Amino acid sequence: MTRTEGPCCAGKTTLGRALLDGLPAASSTYVADYQDHVRGREPLPPPMPASLAEEEESIGIFLRLEAERTRIQRASAVDLILIDRSVHTLLAHCHALEQLTGERYSALAERILRRSTIPLWPDLVIYLDLPEGAVHLRNHGKFSADSIFIDPAFNAGIRSYFGGLARAGAPKVIWIDSTLGAETVRQLVGAEISSLPIS
Asked: Where residue 123 sits, what CATH number does that domain have?
């Protein structure tokens, strides 16, 4: 199971779909990110909670969405699942919130998510890194100027979480500069996925 991660506008969704196009349909499948999954049917929880209790409620909503968006993949016999954002997104989000506010969001997320049977935990995480200036260049109005998702301090917290995950060594984290260009990134990630052992 492989997951694409990184700051907003890094190209995670584009990469996931491009990788799937190059893989045999019978042995691979793709899970859309949370926003694409809800497709406007319901709003996602606010990214900046007012309290730990509000974030706990938000994590519960994301767990429900996680179960919904991975239902078909759980029931299918495929060798490779490509997931756009993951349980690590939720953990990284809470890590970044804690760095911004000093509140214990990380411990809250760890407690809930590690005990849950819902998340699919990856064997390989692809982290697409994007310099802060490039985030703003690629935004094109997708996020407002005051959005937490393009806030330098918040994105530093996201990067810090995945840096710690990479140092831990499990799961394997591949760190890729997403400014290298879509085709170069696709080739680099494709080579990593090809080297994965298939059970």
From this structure: 3.40.50.300
